[in-house]
Structures are given as structure tokens and as C-alpha cells.
Amino acid sequence: MKQESRRRWAFLSGDSLMCPRNIRTMAGRVFFLVILAVLLSNPSRPALAQQSLVVWERNFDEYDETLPLLKLVLGPQYQFTKSADGLEFKRAFKNVAQNRGVDLISVGTSAALESELHPIRWPTDKGTLGYRVCLIRKGQQPLFDRIRTKEDLKKIRFGLSDHWPDTAIMKNAGYTVVTASRYESLFPMLANGRFDCFLRGIGEIKFEIDKRLDQGFEIESGLLLHYHLTNLLFVRKSDAGLIKDINQGFERIMSNGKFDEFFRSFFATRFVDLHLHKRIVFEVPSDHNSPETEKIWDVPGRMIKPQEFKALKAARPLPAAR
Length: 322
Hints:
Largest sheet: 7 strands, mixed
Distance between the termini: 75 Å
Order of helices and strands: HHEHEHEHEEHHEHEHEHEEEHHEH
Shape: globular
Helix content: 25-40%
Strand content: 15-25%
């Protein structure tokens, strides 16, 4: 009788493998091993939870390459959320630095910006941001038809935002620049004759004019300005994991040709109607880039050259990212 009691006590106290507590523990271990086996048998399935990145809301614009390129670079491991609406560049940039609701921003780079955030030195646009054409008032084309030299060009008043790198580039090169603090303010300023040319990137001007067909604007047809300016991704300097993931993603799509495919699909259709290869090209000197970033223009195939526009054929555009 006493021996039977001891056996029952051992069963209930956990000395036996058949104790209910041990059964639960064993079941948990079996469940864990089953899940581990499933994950190991399917390595393409992400083992980590999807990470969320808050991206500046302007980088969600349909003409902006940032969002579809991020999806290509980072893959399904990341999901992307738009920052608060109405966030101007200066505030957005500061919010990234201070970790206040924005994780990533893509803008035209400069040495000053690179001192505050970490630049990902893989140009997202092959330097097309530095190719500029004029948005002008309808009926003003004859003013621009007379331009043949840099001295002629310096008679033109250019409109730009006060915080864009272009502004310092153009001023330092001796051009007259009229500025505004807000992007949207520049359109009525152009309409009211405050300046002659709203200098726009070749990848964005068609979208902008299509949204303002009733405001009396047109695209100037004969001039192309070029300076060394490109879009880079900026993140916090402390985000080492994100920096590593983005760099590895760019290395992958550059080596397998996916980036060139993306560039042709996303940008080429915008250039054809601008007839860039037929325009007079004015090279504008600039020293706003950091030495490290300036070296990118020397890497073969990394930046598009003016003579390449003629050979660039329109490709089927990518679907708009949402």
C-alpha cells in the first residue's frame, strides 16, 4: 500500500514523465520542433516579422521613384507607411533625424544634408534630377528661342524653393533665382510673372503640367540645363540594420540587371516627348556635393549622360505604387 502511494505521488509531483505538467512541457517542445522544421524546409518564407518604415509623404507622389524602388530593394520584409500629410521638407528632414514619426526620406542630396543624416549612396534616379527644363507661361517661348549662350541664359529669372540644392547651385553659377519657402507657392508666382522659368526635373514636369492644364503653363522646348544632382535615400545614422539591408538590396538589383530594367520602365516614357537629345545643353558647375558623393559620377553606368537620351527608348511604365 505504501509503495503504491509513493508511485501515485511521483506521478503527481513531476518525478514521472507521465506527470500532466511534463506532458504539457513535452507537447510544447514537440510543437516548437514542428514549427522549426516547417521554417527550415521553406527558407524563402520570412522568419522575421515584417518591419514597418514611415516614408516622407512626398515620396509617395506618383512621379516619385522612391516607393516602387524601395519595394524592389527591400522586398516583402518591409512595409511602407506614408508620413503625415503637409509635411514640408525641412520639418520632414528634422523628424527623420530626431526619430519623430519619419524613418526615411528621398531628396536631392548635398554635403550639408549628408552631415545630418546617413546618405545611401546608390542614386535612385541615375542623376536625372540634375537635368532641368523650364516650366513657363504660355506665349513666352519666343523669349527662350533667342537663348544661345550662357550670357543669354543669365538674363532669365529662375524660380526655385529656398531649401532645394538647386538654389545654391544656380546662384553660385551667377544666375538670378527667385525663391519661395513652399513648393506650391511657386506655381502662382510663375503665373504672376515673378520669374520666367520654374526649373523642373525631367522626371516630374509632365506630371506637374498635366495637373495644371487650365493654369496657362507650357514646357519650354529648346533648353536643357544640367548639373550634378541626384536623389539619395536618407536614414538615421543609428539605423545600422536598415542601412545594411538597403545597401545589400541595391547591390543585388545592380548585379542582376533589375535596376536598369526599373529605370527604363519608370523613367523612359517621361523623356520621349521632351526631345531631350535635340535641346541645347547648358552645363552648370556645382560644388555642393560631398567628395564621396561626387565620385558617383565617375562610376561607369551609374549616371545617365546627355548623349544617352537619344538611344533611350520608351518602355512600358510600371504600375503606380500605392
